[in-house]
Here is the input.
Amino acid sequence: MRKFVIFFDPGHGISSELKQKFSPVIPKDMHVPAEFMSGGRFREGRFNREIAKELVDILKSTYNLDARLTVTEDVTDISLTERVRRVNRVCNQIGAGNVIMISIHANAFGYGNEWTSANGWEIYTTPGKTNSDILATYIFNRAKKNFTENRRFRTDYSDGDPDKEAKFAVIKGTKCPSCLTENFFYTNKDDLSFISSEVGRQEIIRTHIEGIIDYLRSRKIID
Ligand SMILES: [Zn+2]
Here is the structure.
């Protein structure tokens, strides 16, 4: 098997708990696992890290692939420039065609002071057609199959594929195919219940794993 590296970028940091990357205070009847929580609120930086770490573990243990985190520091919110630099260093070593990066996030609407109606799952690439769009479409198609319970998808088909396009620094700066997933809204009560549940969490993980494996098969990286 040729050298191939899969990066997961856990968005933000534990320290960004201070920067409104949190849900409103969780009501007592709503179960959210402790690892996602601090101070009675869901914290995006914690969630992103938990998901990204599990994705790395599965690709390593089940598929024997070289999967890595862009950020292993738990507390600090490492700058986007530094995250990009870490990915591009590997791109420069083994070729950008032998690397992919997926940035893991959950979405928010407003300032975390009230529950809002915005909801759904989405995946982003930068504008223009590249291998990033192929990767994103594989992940999207798995999301469509995996997410049950009438979950909502936020799409943009204007350019012929389902991913939305934005010049986010972390996907714009990396030389390899890159995309960013927004795994539902933690400022929406129903979405938050879903991503806090074991079912929701497993569907998010399975979607990323299966989409990546589809992409690697299509590029003949694995059989
Ligand atoms: Zn985020």
In short: The pocket of zinc ion is lined by residues 11-12, 44, 105 (CB under 6 Å).
